[in-house]
Write a structure and sequence with these properties.
The structure holds two protein chains of two kinds. Chain A contains ten helices and nine strands. In chain A, a hairpin with a 5-residue loop joins strand 4 and strand 5. In chain A, helix 1 packs parallel to helix 3, helix 3 runs antiparallel to helix 4 and helix 6 runs parallel beside helix 8. By secondary structure, chain A is an alpha+beta fold. Chain A is globular and about 80 Å long. Chain A has a four-stranded antiparallel sheet, covered by helices on one side. Chain A has a three-stranded mixed sheet with strand order 1-4-5, covered by helices on one side. Chain B is of the alpha/beta class. Chain B has a single domain, classed as Rossmann fold (3-Layer(aba) Sandwich). Chain B has seven helices and eleven strands. In chain B, about 35% of the residues are buried. The chains are: A alpha+beta, B alpha/beta. The interface between A and B is medium-sized, with 19 and 14 residues.
């Protein structure tokens, strides 16, 4: 069995047999079940929520978490390969699964009480329940510590007030992991159920990127929850940042999938499209583009592969994740642009996936840590000096 | 209910098929292999039968070099209970009777109630293994199954005939049935299934233990059809040209 994608450096030899079969399963599922409907949803600005239970049945939700936490216990490389295939389909699909697994199931698995785990993880793992992650606020993106959403203790309960912005799956979620500051300015996580008094959501319209994904604003007005809704094993920014590390890990793999789809589309097109005496793939200018793309894809493959194995060994650092997320977003952005150019006018139509990927990548480039913030994380790591306000 | 599913690993349809230097087989070092399409449907049908009667065992059986264990694992990941790998060294066998006898020698002691195979393999396309195996094991046989209905000691099979005709036949068990592609919607292996498959048994049978000494037929030579462009200029008066044109359309191109 072979890695599905360009394999210039024999990546297949590095992958375990079951990892390759998992990639094949994800690939076939996306191509057969999702690709026939992606353009329709992208155009309408909707997400095919009915696919959630299929994703759950296959084990794609939180797949690297243990079975008792609703996952499938697969390696982090296998998890990455799934996201690679989902994003080869569309970033909206990958984002859906990333949020569910890395930002909802992971914090409940890592920081939740036994009661919370029993209540939420089986349904989230099977896709019967959908989750969202409420961290970003309108005025606090790169600086989450400045959040103004408040959680005030009232007897055995908490009263939460605030609003959250740019929340993937917000309006379709059964449960929201919401982060708020208590009266001592300590950030705490809460599991807020859909339908509870004072909690509402509205979708953000007019997006020209990630259109096949639901993006919402959450509003919390005097939302009263019992202390049992608080994630008991986490406080401060560190815990919530660990969730972001999980999600960014998957994004690095996802961006590779989008880049591979653009590259393969451009390569096939260049070999078939004849101008003057031969296919445009036979001209030096096109070959220079293809050579650049295959080299950068190979670099990115090696980066995420190694990162995955480090994660499997429990040695991965968040700075390493920043490098992969940062690199692969830039790579995908560049490759989408170069690929689109090779397709000429055809490249701007929905007959080819490149413009859709290109528009999606713009979101991914700045979400889950902007390119600039990851640059500063790496800068701090190599110099020991933080270049941002702390 | 004990069901065997014969699965063949064949070159993927998007693989280039370079021939070996002597032209007797394809150079499989350059090929991506996949599960034979109709075998995938046969496997799904077996799993559904087991689920319907809520009892039984599905065993995937494949013959070939070590690489065929991948399709066995894929079958196990989809839900088969165990696998049997008939090893082949060197070039794979293409004689259907020889293949059927190999399978017979390994399967006869297993006493399967049902053997399902794909209708034909996507590489050699002989379409004989299921029937020959059934005959050698003393089973009733049917081909071109597009629907099945399992009973306690019989199986009803809907067969696809020519010109849009169908036929329901009832076979006593044990039976060997070959399955047409499209009979069902094959499942994807779940991650749980893939991880669980690692722990399932694959019995390996060495070539010396299953391969008959005799061989009845062999592939002489494979070749890639040559496409030639020919240009013929028609000369003469109108009648001569028209007559020749009609002859070409009727006899050479067979389009009128």
């Amino acid at each position: 069995m072979q890695y599905i994608g360009p394999d210039f450096y024999n990546i297949s030899d590095l992958l375990k047999e079951e990892e390759l079969l998992i990639q094949k399963t994800a690939h076939e599922f996306v191509q057969n079940e999702f690709m026939p409907v992606v353009n329709e949803h992208y155009e309408k600005g909707t997400f095919p929520t009915e696919i959630a239970t299929q994703l759950g049945e296959l084990g794609f939700m939180g797949s690297s978490l243990p079975e008792e936490s609703g996952g499938a216990g697969v390696s982090n490389v296998a998890y990455g390969l799934i996201l690679h295939e989902l994003e080869r389909g569309d970033s909206g699909l990958r984002s859906f699964v990333s949020v569910q697994g890395a930002l909802v199931m992971y914090p409940i698995h890592s920081y939740g009480s036994d009661e919370q785990k029993q209540k939420w993880l089986p349904g989230l793992g099977s896709g019967e329940l959908i989750g969202c992650f409420g961290l970003t606020e309108a005025n606090f993106g790169s600086n989450p510590g400045g959040m103004v959403t408040k959680a005030v203790r009232d007897g055995d309960d908490w009263i939460i007030n605030g609003s959250k912005m740019w929340i993937t799956n917000g309006s379709i979620a059964d449960v929201a992991v919401v982060w708020a500051k208590d009266e001592e300015q300590i950030v705490r996580g809460f599991l807020i159920e859909k339908g509870i008094d004072g909690f509402s959501s509205s979708d953000i319209h007019g997006k020209l990127s990630l259109r096949a994904s639901v993006t919402s604003e959450l509003s919390l007005v005097n939302v009263r929850v019992p202390d049992s809704a608080r994630l008991p094993k986490v406080e401060g920014l560190k815990g919530l940042l660990s969730c972001l590390t999980q999600a960014r890990y998957g994004i690095a793999w996802g961006m590779l999938g989008a880049a591979v789809d653009c590259y393969e589309t451009a390569l096939n097109y260049a070999k078939e499209r004849k101008q003057f005496s031969k296919p445009i793939a036979g001209y030096q200018l096109t070959q220079a583009k293809l050579a650049e793309m295959i080299t950068r894809i190979t670099e990115a493959q090696l980066l995420v592969y190694r990162l995955g194995r480090l994660k499997d060994e429990g040695k991965m650092t968040f700075q390493q994740v920043s490098m992969a997320k940062r690199n692969n977003c830039v790579l995908a952005r560049d490759i989408a642009k170069i690929s689109r150019g090779i397709l000429g006018a055809n490249g701007i139509t929905e007959d080819y996936p490149i413009m859709r990927h290109m528009a999606n990548i713009e979101s991914v480039y700045t979400y889950e840590g902007t390119h600039e913030m990851h640059t500063l994380i790496l800068g701090q790591e190599v110099t020991g000096i933080a270049a941002y306000d702390s | 209910m004990k069901i065997a599913v014969l699965i063949k690993q064949v070159p993927g349809s998007d693989s280039a098929l370079p021939l070996t230097g002597d032209g007797t087989w394809i150079d499989d070092s350059l090929i991506t292999f996949v599960m034979n399409e109709s075998d995938n449907y046969a496997l799904e049908e077996a799993l559904r039968i087991r689920e319907k009667i809520n009892d039984g065992e599905v065993v995937v059986v494949s013959m070939g070099p070590d690489r065929v264990q991948r399709v066995i694992r894929e079958g196990l990941a989809k839900g088969a209970d165990r696998g049997i790998h008939l090893e082949e060294d060197g070039q794979i066998e293409t004689d259907p009777l020889c293949i059927a006898k190999s399978f017979t020698s390994v399967l006869e002691d297993e006493n399967f109630d049902l053997v399902l195979t794909g209708l034909q393999s996507d590489d050699t396309g002989m379409g004989q293994t299921g029937i020959l195996l059934g005959e050698l094991l003393g089973m009733s046989t049917a081909t071109l199954g597009i629907e099945t209905d399992i009973q306690s000691d019989t199986i009803r099979v809907k067969r696809e005939l020519e010109s849009g005709w169908f036929q329901w036949i009832k076979l006593p068990l044990p039976a060997s049935v070959s399955i047409q592609s499209g009979i069902n919607q094959p499942r994807y292996p779940s991650l749980k299934g893939i991880m669980g498959a690692k722990k399932k048994e694959i019995k390996i049978v060495a070539q010396s233990e299953h391969r008959p000494d005799t061989k009845w037929q062999s592939l002489n030579r494979l070749f890639i059809p040559q496409t030639n462009k020919q240009t013929e200029t028609l000369n003469g008066d109108a009648d001569t040209i028209v007559n020749r044109l009609v002859e070409i359309l009727r006899s050479d191109l067979r389009i009128i």
